[in-house]
Amino acid sequence: MAEQTPQSDRATGGAAETARLNDWLREHLTAPGNNRVVMTSGIADLIGDVSLFRNFRKRAELLRAVRDFDDFDDAIDPYGEHDLGRFRFGGTDCYWKIDYYNHDLSAGSEDPADPFKTTRVLTIMRVDER
């Protein structure tokens, strides 16, 4: 995952616009546009087999937990960008994290508040996979 860059070092888009775009991605996890949503193998193990609609309820529960997360505080969201959340799923502590890349995913974005310069990658992982 990309290193988190302090807001003061970022381009002028602003934390409020970055947070708005991050919240939009979480609200549209199943249709993220040019952004990406991925999960680690540890999260996939918690869900189990999803072929032929098996365990689809677990997957839906996971996506709802990420979508509905709103427990942002200074400890988890010091820059006000809504780019990290911690939650429990299946009795396991988990994170979701949004990183900012250029459109070909070869480097970090120069301005995370500009959707024309940024592809967001939301990763869902277990805390012990950090």
UniProtKB/TrEMBL annotation:
Its recorded name reads DUF3768 domain-containing protein
- Species in which this protein is naturally found: Sphingomonas glacialis
Under the heading Pfam families, the entry gives: DUF3768
InterPro entries in the cross-refs: DUF3768
